[in-house]
Known about the structure:
single chain; elongated; 62% strand; mainly beta
Amino acid sequence: MRRLKTVVALVALSAGVAGAEQFGVQAGIGNLGLHVGAYSRVAGFGPVQTELRGTFDRGLTSGGETRVGADALLSVNLLLLRPYAGLGVGLPLGGGGASFQTTVGARFGLPGPFSGFAEGNFGSRNVYRAGLLLRF
């Protein structure tokens, strides 16, 4: 019986038990300032899903830069955590060239329809963000 419980626990951790959301919006703060984004599920199989995300970041300093970005993400639904990683492109709205970026992060459940997120975005600038996300 103990072995069965161990197997069930491992399957739940590796396969995920919560349903995958179809759409989500996120808001947070990072070392560049305010961050908002929206993502949508593109495809998925079991606990793995692919997502597309658009982001908007606004710096809070007097010369704060405004950037928009787009990412393609791959996420895995674990029991208490949804880690994700992806590649994307960022574009400063005040001029300048586009830059490629890599994102690594995780979403974690909170009560109700909310989740928290924490991520690192690495490219021409390294940005670390944390905030809330409303999932649908």
